[in-house]
Amino acid sequence: MNNITKNRIKDKLFRIWGIACTLVGLVLLAIFIGSILIDGLQRIDWSFITSLPSRKAERAGIFTALMGSVWILVLTTIIALPVGIAAAIYLEEYAKKGRLSNLLEINISNLAGVPSIIYGLLGLEVFVRIMQMGASVLAGSFTLALLILPIVIVSTREAIKAVPKSLRDASFALGASKWQTVSMQLLPASFGGILTGVILALSRAVGETAPLIVIGALAYVPFAPSSPMDEFSVMPIQIFNWISRPQHGFDVNAAAAIIILLLITFIMNGIAVYFRNRWQKKFK
Amino acid sequence: MSKKETESVIDPAIKRKQKLEATNIRVFYDDFEAIKGIDMTIKANKVTAFIGPSGCGKSTFLRLFNRMNDYVDGFRLEGEITIDGKNIYKKKVNVEQLRKQVGMVFQKPNPFPKSIFENVAYGLRIQGIKDKKFLQEKVEDSLKQVALWDEVKDDLNKNALTLSGGQQQRLCIARTLAVEPSIILMDEPTSALDPISTAKIEELIFELKNKYTIIIVTHNMQQAARVSDQTAFFYMGELIEFDNTKKLFTNPAKKQTENYITGRFG
Lengths: 284, 266
Prior knowledge:
heterodimer; A: mainly alpha; 0% strand; B: alpha/beta; six-stranded mixed β-sheet; 39% helix
């Protein structure tokens, strides 16, 4: 056997191995989604979405948890977005490159890897106790905002970094100040990229359970929150609660709720992909 | 040409115009010395060309005049650069103001991803000018100066990125003219363009020198010979020769210059 055929065989083997590896993840996910769909799809109707929680599985709905998730999502966005984007702009455009900014950079990346339950403990101490927000939507939102802040900062920085240097040069050379360049050129140009990062971060936040359980979010709330200071539940906690019950009917409910939660994250990711593609087209 | 040259310097009208002076300039990027002690006086309302092989420091030197090197990490300057006798690297100098006075055109056309109109209006908008009529007049006037008006007057709202490379570069020059600088720096403005677009830009440079002081960095020696009045030859961070363009190209004083312009290296 000569070298060329040997290499070709190696090439082929690696291709098969690669396909197998790719399939493992996909197949598992497909099996999971399939079984969830089989279990839960028949349970999903309008009343499932609009009903309050109940002791009877067939009457219970996800309304309060869904509304809790929506509240959390909106408040988390309002808190994390301005802070994260401002921090990213500072680090990328204003901060002097040096040891301090390197240190900050490394730490922000590290924060993105901290287990979410640690954020829950931090939120419990700072927001729930010291700032006396109680187990409210607001406390939950602040906690999740902290959790996604590193992701928002890192992805915003990447988006700003991707703006061609020539655009910056052009703006500065015409006498623009730093802030004018940032607000009139860099932010519009990196808008799509920033949005993509933010949406991906938020779709992580919407699936978080642990930190919210730690700060005291409830599994059972009779009403959807009507102000930031209300108690709340969210979808993942509702799912967790239902799964841990013995009656079979709640398993079905959990499956149905999972489908809706997955749908929410898929839609959010879809929007993120859409904006990324549109933005890329505009600049190439 | 050289006779006219000496006359024009005495011309009182031109004397009032801004003169650029660089004294004992050294530029460092961290430990690397990019410019090794250069003195130069650039005359007003003339075209001055900087030539030299890649990495010789000509672009770095050009960017000193509108402080575009300030953003480069590790940049450090020794020496003095004055415009009209004022040191532009003094602490209290308003850099934004300086750049309105010293415009710049880059190697690759870099229009903003906005409409043609907004590209030209940008420099005025950032000064806080909102008067629509004034902006319109200014945009039209600037586009006419670069002979682009007739080509784009019907689609001023079109994205500037849809223009051809040559049109984009003329748009970038129009954008620079709109803020009424007195000095224009050009960093290899035609190196990304085809010969026809290049010819148009060169023609434009020729017209612009009546009103502006122009410094152009170029790799193209024919271009330097065609458009400039004065030429500076840089090599390894040093100014080897600076003279009347005609003299430098026909009778260079230094052997290195001769070797370079005859194509023996570079």
